[in-house]
Amino acid sequence: MAADNTVARAEALLAAGARQEAIALVDGAAAAGNVDALMRLATWRLIGAPVPRDLPLARALLARTVAIGHVDAALMQIALTANGSGGVANWPAALALLRIAARNDPLAAEHLALVGAMDIDTDGMPRNIPEPERLSDAPDLVRYRALLTPQECAHIAGIAADMLEPASVLDPTTGAPIAHPVRTSYGAVIGPAKESLPTRALNHRLAAISGTMIAQGEPLAVLRYTPGQQYRPHLDSIAGAINQRIKTVLVYLNHGFVGGETRFMATGLTIAPQPGDAIVFSNVLENGQPDRSAEHAGLPVTRGAKWLATRWIRATPYDAWNAPRL
Question: What Gene3D superfamilies would the database entry show (predicted)?
């Protein structure tokens, strides 16, 4: 109770504009071994507010928190160890940490079982990739049937479920979030701190089928569409981007809905979602210019809820912690 009160008092101080007092309160409690204060300080160091971002320090704080027995800190430590945030990516070390966490945490045990069922090597890389089915040359588009198992699809949707928010963009005048003019779904991004070990392995798989490095991918985005919601015709390439989105991977996560097909506007090619299927298409031409034939839409869902995972892949490595707007 005292630990929770300390963090609550710090948050109240922050809300009142007393930033330094809040930081001092959490720093002092963390130094005294207050597990919730340690966790909050680690989180602050990850997000970069109200203290400067320091990923190595965040990982050190998480290690202290885990040693005291904080379950959420253990899963976050595993994620950062696997993807290399604040250090070097180390799959074997992350797997060893997951095995330790799984002894006392049912959620970690589920993650370990899911990883154990995957056909991956000692670095979490897929050993085998199914043959693609070519659907189009313009745009360059292929499909991989049943790339993800039902359990893997459920895992991705489950991580995102509690983070879903209405799609929005920033008002260029006020800077406040406003309704997205093109996408009417709910969405969430599985960032580096939430990238479970199964998710990391799946991101390796998506990199493999797209012929890219995992570092080129943006964090996995998960979208949920309910009746009437859609993604109107659009290009995934970004006008004027310094580090362009060269490819898109879409993974359909569920069944039990009607509508929600993916349609490519130039050809009329319409893809009916099947759970576990993935499509990969290029967003740019050989000269690096946007490919207009890659314009596509997510048609309205008419019944049920459609879940979809999207990984946008850049031309060069993408730093999710210090991502530019373009």
Answer: q2cbj1_9rhob like domain, Tetratricopeptide repeat domain
Q: What is the pLDDT of residue 172?
A: 55
Asked whether the bond before 275 is cis by omega within 30 degrees of 0, the reply is: no
Fold category of 2-116 in CATH: 1.25.40
Q: Which uninterrupted H or E stretch holds 222? A: strand 220-225
Q: How far apart are CA 57 and CA 34, in angstroms?
A: 17
Judge contact between 85 and 192, C-beta under 8 A.
yes
Residues of the chain with CATH 2.60.120.620: 133-322
pTM score over 0.70: yes
- The conformation of residue 309, written as its DSSP 8-state character, comes to E
Contact 41, 61 (CB under 8 A): yes
Query: Taking all residues of the chain, what is their mean pLDDT, rounded to a whole number?
Result: 94
Residue 66's CB is within 10 A of a number of other CB atoms, namely 24
User: Residue range 139-149: average pLDDT?
Assistant: 98
Segments of 49-125 assigned E as strands: none
Amino acid at 181: P
User: CA nearest 260: which of 287, 284, 296, 234?
Assistant: 296
C-beta separation of 135 from 201 below 8 A? no
